[in-house]
Amino acid sequence: MGIVSPGFRRRRRDDDVQLPPGQYLTEDFPVLSAGPTPNIPLDRWEFVIASETGQEYRWTWDELQELPAEEPTVDIHCVTKWSKLGTSWRGVSLDLLMEDVETTADYALAHSYGGYTTNLPLEDLLDGKAWIVYEYEGSELAPQHGGPARLLVPHLYFWKSAKWVRGLQLQEFDELGFWESVGYHDYGDPWREQRYAGD
Amino acid sequence: MTQEYQDGNALAGPLAELFAVDVTAATGRCVSCGDTRRVADLRVYGHALGWVARCPSCEHVMLRLVRAPDAAWIDLQGTLSLRVPLPPA
Amino acid sequence: MSPRLEWRVATLAGVRQETPTALTLLLDVPGWPGHVPGQHVDVRLTDEDGYSTQRSYSLAAPADGDRVELTVQRVKGGEVSEYLTDTFSVGDPVELRGPVGGWFVWHPSRTAPVLLVAGGSGIVPLMAMIRARRQARSRAPFRLIHSVRSPSDQYYASELRRATRDEGGLDIATVYTRSAPTGSARPPRRIGPADLELYGWPPQFEPTCYVCGPTGFVEKVANTLVGLGHDPRRIRTERFGPTGD
């Protein structure tokens, strides 16, 4: 790491809160994008879970809205070192979406509109740990933050919470996603500071 | 209308850490659409976890670069070939 | 030169106010290897927590020994440009690496006509070319078209006035997008084909065109130049991106 720039401060911080190692608190919501923000008309939007046998389970936008929603309030941690506490979301638990899915797969590869992918162990998407969310702080999720809908997996670094999510491919093997294939950690646990491959 | 990208000139520093020649002056062919483009003219999304350079014609990812504290990863899967201008031998 | 690019520690030796929102930083960089006009540097800031961020800035002038100049436009909310223009003080260190970039450059040995088109602070690398031309006593015919919002957003105004008077073969036009000086014949509007035809070179002269500015500006000017008949291979572009901060 370089020399300290005299008087240079990241915008906000608070030393009293317990954060994962190496993280700083932020009040704003930085936008990190690896590509253009996709424009997804809601009447063409769908979410698809494909099992390892090729069976597909689909939800249209309206069908997703009709499912019982949850309103998780969670802390989020970005691998670029900002953390944001107490963010509130509204969406559908993946437990509910996975309820009727027949699978023995151990892994999931999340796919997004625009081509982004990220890989997770399937168990990290279950037991109340993950959601497909479409509202943030009481308003519809803005496109730059992943709207119309994004994956929310707050116990892992935030790149795992794929913006513009389109579906999950369930599989028996672990296939690296967009950032995981160029050096980011396969799992990405902020509390163990798993930023890069080998951490 | 938001312009979310810079251009490949911004890759000059990060790539100069890895290569002895200036890669931004090189011409790459996109795997997806076959267009050839100067690396300096690629669309670079840089305020992210790494640098992602996309083809200006089809937005396909031509180059990715991630810099960790003690290593760099570069991916050129999206670039079929790279023509690097050199001084005459 | 070392093939591997390394961070160097530069020290702020002085500043010059260019516009109400832009400053030129005069930096001393021990062991600076020299550079070609149009090249840029990466600047890295680090805070006490180890949080670190970097941005690219164009070099505004030819090197003078270990002294280099960067002109920084203050971008509202831009954590790097706000630091460099508000907090960074004479005597403070900053990390910098470069020079980098071998495409958007002009070599003073070239004699072909040059068209420079700048949007706002996009003039910075083009100013380095104009200054290098003077330093090398080049006779290459130069034309600069600078698009700015209003008269107070003009960079390097007095130096450019002197240069057009004293240096043969350098023409400068300023076009205003929001408010023009009183008595100006051209109403304020965005740069268009008529401006590029009137103040640029005809395509038959085969000028090398350098276009620098915000992404939208550069796309528009480069497309217009192609539309006017300029060979795309002679158009070199540099875009700041969304914030340029």
List the defining traits of the structure above.
heterotrimer; A: 199 residues; mainly beta; Sulfite Oxidase, Chain A, domain 2; six-stranded mixed beta sheet; five-stranded mixed beta sheet; 2 helices; 29% strand; C: 245 residues; alpha/beta; Elongation Factor Tu (Ef-tu), domain 3; Rossmann fold; 2 domains; six-stranded antiparallel beta sheet; five-stranded parallel beta sheet
Commentary on this structure:
The complex is a heterotrimer of chains A (199), B (89) and C (245). Helices cover 6% and strands 29% of the residues of chain A. Chain A is mainly beta. In chain A, the strands form 2 sheets. In chain A, strands 1, 4, 5, 8, 9 and 10 form a 6-stranded mixed sheet that branches. In chain A, a hairpin with a 4-residue loop joins strand 4 and strand 5 (82-93). In chain B, a hairpin with a 5-residue loop joins strand 4 and strand 5. The radius of gyration of chain B is 13 Å and the shape is globular. The termini of chain B are far apart. Chain C has 2 domains: 8-100, Elongation Factor Tu (Ef-tu), domain 3; 114-239, Nucleotide-binding domain of ferredoxin-NADP reductase (FNR) module (Rossmann fold, 3-Layer(aba) Sandwich), CATH 3.40.50. The model of chain C has no long low-confidence stretch (mean pLDDT 93). The B-C interface holds B 1-7, 9-10, 12-14, 16-17, 20, 22, 24-25, 38-41, 44, 46-47 and C 3-5, 39-42, 54, 56, 97-98, 100-104, 214-216, 218, 236-242.
Annotated CATH homologous superfamily of the domain at 43-70 and 89-192 in chain A: Oxidoreductase, molybdopterin-binding domain
The ordered string of helix (H) and strand (E) elements of chain A is EEEHEEHEEEEEE
The residue-averaged pLDDT of chain A reads 93
**What is the overall number of helices of chain A?**
2
**What overall form of chain C do the CA principal axes indicate?**
globular
- Find the CATH topology of the domain at 43-70 and 89-192 in chain A: Sulfite Oxidase, Chain A, domain 2
Q: Describe the biggest sheet of chain C? A: 6 strands, antiparallel
How large is the radius of gyration of chain C?
Answer: 18 Å
Helix/strand/pairing class of chain A, anyone?
A: mainly beta
What's the number of structural domains of chain C? 2
